[in-house]
Design a protein that fits this description.
Layout: E1 6-12, E2 29-30, E3 33-34, H1 35-46, E4 51-56, H2 61-66, E5 74-77, H3 82-92, E6 100-105, H4 112-123, E7 128-134, E8 139-143, E9 146-150, E10 156-158, E11 162-165, H5 166-176, H6 184-190, E12 195-199, H7 210-222, E13 226-239, E14 243-246, E15 249-252, E16 256-257, H8 265-277, H9 283-286, H10 300-312, E17 316-325, H11 335-346, E18 353-358, H12 364-367, E19 371-382
Helix pairs in contact: 1-4, 3-5, 5-6, 8-10
Bound molecules: cytidine-5'-triphosphate and magnesium ion (MG).
The site of cytidine-5'-triphosphate has 22 residues, from strand 1 and helix 3.
Length: 384
Amino acid sequence: MNSPKVSVILVAAGRGTRLGDGLPKQYRQIFGRSVLQRAIDGVRAALPGAGILTVIAEGAEALYQASTDGDRPSAVLGGDTRQASVLKGLEALVEEAPDIVLIHDAARPFGVETVAADLVARAGKGGGVAPALEVPDTLRRAEGGAFQPMMRDGVWRVQTPQAFLYAEILAAHRKAAGQALTDDLSVAEAAGLSVTLIPGDPRAFKITTQADFDQAETTVLAALADARTGHGYDVHAFGPGDHVMLCGVRVPYTFALAGHSDADVGLHALTDAVLGTIGAADIGAHFPPSDLQWRGASSDAFLRHAVSLVAAKGGIVAHVDVTLVCEAPKVGPHRAAMVSRLADILGLAADRVSVKATTTEGLGFTGRREGIAAYATATVRLPA
Ligand code: CTP
Ligand code: MG
């Protein structure tokens, strides 16, 4: 088949119950990018010419928007099972009628590039093809209250993407509707199509449990060997007002911090720390106080911009540490909220975010309660 028309269906309509309560796993962040966005990025890099269709759960539209970049693929609603979700995706492509379709779990953010070209080439010949790995461990099956030995030889773990001629897999899925088949190769097989396995990539594991999620973090870090630390410092004076903004959190107080933006001294120091890791000057160079558009601006925009500059270099922010210096207001009662706000802005796990506070024992301008100072460090990781 000469340059076939290829579509990729990314199934992302699951609830992620095995990973635990809260956000479904495909919408969780790994260093500032959601699992789903990483899956999209992987597919785009591996198959630049392919169309992508995402299948999301009913009611997840806002979540999909919030956890993907602006140029996100279009989405259709899935069903109660993976199989039902895939069928919805296939039906949505009827008009487009691609030659070849790859069906891929959004919960597998890595490793598509290893197999994509081979899958497309083989799928052109008809039947189903999927990447798979041999099982290295000895296997036992739970049976009658005991664990019975099982033959390991010839046992393979099947991954995604799985590739097919679109017309063949659409017909097979329509025929299999309502069954409980956990992958598309099984659907193809049930319809009498031949199936082939090609060598998979261990990095294409499916995130299912917390241990997998931790492994996903490690996988991202492992590719980013250039570790850098940046430092930032900022001061704002008190002026009239009834609250201060500190690390993105509104803290009631008898004064406000004076400044051009919302004067969030913690976010400003942290923004400078992140800029420092990539030698990108300072916050004033990016957001000049003379520019009216930053008057009263919420300072999280500054930090997000600094993080986006790191991301543009293929890097991530791995850890931040902020120290606020003031006699008052008291930071302690708001510390957890600040950590959670920073973690949210940065897309980081809370244990990679630190907010500390100290007084200066009545000494100096902070001791005289004239203003607040903040110090910050940021660690980023870049491709070596
Ligand atoms: N999936 C889907 N529609 C469903 C169920 C699953 O699109 N009704 C997708 C998931 O989003 C995931 C892939 O199929 O990308 C593999 O499924 P699985 O790992 O089982 O994910 P979840 O069903 O979300 O997780 P769990 O089984 O732990 O609830
Ligand atoms: Mg499931």
